[in-house]
Amino acid sequence: MKTTSTNAGILPSRQAVVYAGDYLNKLAGEQIERECRIRLQEGCDELVVNFSQTELVNSIGISILLGIIDSASNQGAKVVFSDVKQETVELFDLLGVTKHADVEIKDRLQQRLW
Amino acid sequence: MAEERHKLVHTFGALAELGQEVSSKPNFHETMRTSLHLLLGSLAIMRGGVAGYSRFGHELNMLATRGFGEDFPLTLALCQEDERQFLGNGLYPIEISQAKVLPFFQIYDHSFENSALELFVPLVVHEEMVGAVFLGSKATGEPYTSYDREIVCAMARHIGVAIAQRNMMAELERRADENRKLYENLRMTYNDTVKAFAAAIDRKDKYTEGHSVRVGKYSEIIASELGWSEQEIEGAAVAGYLHDVGKITVERKIINAPYRINAKESTELNKHPRVGYEILMPINHPYADVPLAAKYHHERIDGRGYPDGLHDREIPYIAKIVNLADSFDAMTTDRPYKRRRPVNEVFDDLQRNAGKQFEPQIVTSFFRGMYNELTGEAKEKRFRRLLGREFMETEGMIPMLRSSLNAMTPTSPLTFVALD
Known about the structure:
The structure holds two protein chains of two kinds.
Chain A (H helix, E strand, L loop, with lengths): L7 E4 L3 E5 L10 H12 L4 E5 L8 H17 L2 E7 L1 H10 L6 E4 L2 H6 L1
Parallel strand pairs in A: 2-3, 3-4, 4-5
Antiparallel strand pairs in A: 1-2
Helix pairs in contact in A: 1-2
Chain B lengths: L1 H23 L3 H16 L4 E7 L4 E8 L8 E3 L2 H10 L4 E2 L7 H5 L1 H6 L2 E9 L2 E9 L9 H57 L8 H15 L4 H13 L9 H4 L7 H7 L2 H9 L9 H7 L20 H16 L10 H10 L7 H16 L6 H11 L4 H12 L12
Antiparallel strand pairs in B: 1-2, 1-6, 2-3, 4-5, 5-6
Helix pairs in contact in B: 1-2, 1-6, 2-6, 7-8, 7-13, 7-15, 8-12, 11-12, 12-13, 14-17, 15-17
């Protein structure tokens, strides 16, 4: 069960969900990276970064996501980017980010309502 | 085509943000961290670092890193050959695998390999090495293209300029600090010289030994009571210390005469303010009015003073302060021809002559300073140190001062109304 009251939580299947929010594109996004590292140290083996509240991802965001991927890879954990907008998926593809993480696209209806 | 455009928008967005970042953020370390994020994120580079270069230590000190292992050194030493090669290379990426002939890459080969570093960019700004950028592989796993290298160069240049600016600021601050210390030393030397000079002036007259120093201290108290700045207070003290410097040209027998001096001797003695001015004028004082205080400390508000018979506003304010300090000390110390006067007479004299000889505001400040010390409102015992316990504990001092203050400030009924 996902909680919405906090930014992150560990699910019973050792899956942790972290909400990228709009902090990802600033230096404050390093906090998300730290949060992910904590979840990985707590034993999570699948890290889900949720982009439902993230409109776009800039270079700082990419750098932070690569940091998350690196930490997960060192711990042997899987990274999933969920609820990602089509435009962002294209960027991830272009930059090779999708080679290191699974990406789940936000469904079209949701995207239109966004 | 659309992909290319998308990539261009992303990269140029990063470049624009980097330009803004290095020119606006006051926190250098945050700027370096953000700059590294922007550089890595623009091309999706898995790991990297930015280092500043110390010309004195010949070493690169890491300012920000991403994805380096814990064993990656935070300081990397360079030899002269490395530095020469990097300067010659300029701000262009060096392929680490192709540059292993250089001692730098041989020494740190293991660390670079462990962090999978591919490019090293010496940050050369105005023909000076200010730092370096280390870059790992791209997320695509593809080699860096010439386009990527151009982007890396453009962004590294921004980072280099930011480091160079920071170095320049640090250098300026260091020099400003050095100047401050030098100025402080000079100021102390000047003040010590002034005090030594004041002591030398006072040695001419055994009766007025310590007079110049006391006038300096009284002037300092008055200036502080008037709410002057620290520098102005110091200037007032110096003016007091040096006010009688012209007396060094007056014959000792006139200064030490144990009788009221005659007209001729008086004319001789009265030259000392102008002589003092002439002595002090060529000196480059940190306080501009010091020579004027010496020249005009015997002028009176009513125009009956000397050497020029100036009236009220024509007299520099500092000279008015020194005038009161000088007169007060003369009244409260024994002279060859005159004993010190009782406290009540001194206060009466100051009060009566306010507006004639003395500036009323200065008299009020003087009384208030003494009153505050006696009532304990002012903690520092400045007057007691100068006048001694006997004077300060004269019976009825506080009521006397209160009455003098009330007389001096009749339109201010809220202050110093007699309570007992």
